[in-house]
Design goal:
The structure is a single chain. Residues 88-112 have low confidence and may be disordered. This protein has a 4-stranded antiparallel sheet with strand order 3-2-1-4. Strands 5-6 form a two-stranded antiparallel ribbon. The protein has a domain at 3-71. The two termini are 14 Å apart. The chain is flat. With 112 residues, it is mostly beta strands. It has 1 helix and 6 strands.
């Protein structure tokens, strides 16, 4: 089951070296149809993300999609063969906006 939420970057807190902490909050119902839909399914949420990679950056007040997909564990020790998904990179160009082919409609999990 894949689930999508929409969050807005609210703050950037510099750390030591290249480390930055980003604070995100679920979007509010600001009158736009898309944000109203996301707010209906995720009326509240907060994500604090610490990043130690200068190639990754987020902008304050920019909205971002947050996709949740189940992680597949490496079960090589048990003999089970499960394919692990590769982690996303900062250069990802996946088109996963609501209504995009293969995307999900906010948190209601309806395939479009």
């Amino acid at each position: 089951m894949a689930v999508r939420a929409k969050f807005k970057c609210a703050a950037i807190v510099p750390g030591s070296g290249d480390t930055k902490q980003y604070q995100f909050f679920a979007v509010t119902d600001d009158g736009t149809p898309e944000n109203e839909r996301y707010h209906r399914y995720t009326p509240g949420g907060r994500l604090d993300l610490t990043v130690d990679n200068p190639a990754v950056s987020f902008e304050i007040n920019q909205e971002y999609y947050l996709d949740f997909t189940p992680a597949i564990l490496n079960t090589a020790e048990t003999g089970n063969e499960e394919q692990a998904a590769a982690p996303a990179t900062s250069g990802s160009t996946q088109d996963s906006a609501p209504g995009a082919e293969g995307g999900t409609d906010s948190l209601n999990n309806e395939e479009e």
